Amino acid sequence: MFVGAVSDNFDERIEQKIFHAEIVVDNAAVAAETKAYKKIPDILDFRDEDGNDTMQSEIERNYNQIKLDVKEIVSDELKRIENDENLKHLLK
Do 84 and 77 touch, CB atoms closer than 8 A? Predict the structure, then answer.
């Protein structure tokens, strides 16, 4: 069960502003669908050869690499703009 209310605009009136409804679920159909689900395979395992969880260090490594990549892109673009007569006025 759920209830709610909506608002409208002055030029787009909604006559039914308050509602009360029930979501009807076909439990048998949902159970049959769920039973047919296939397991999602593991694509990446965050354990090293000794079985240690390396997920946090891998995330940090990726994060730091992305930060470096972004800094390099920004630096390259600033140099490009600085060396372009039509764009260098955009830099302070």
Answer: no
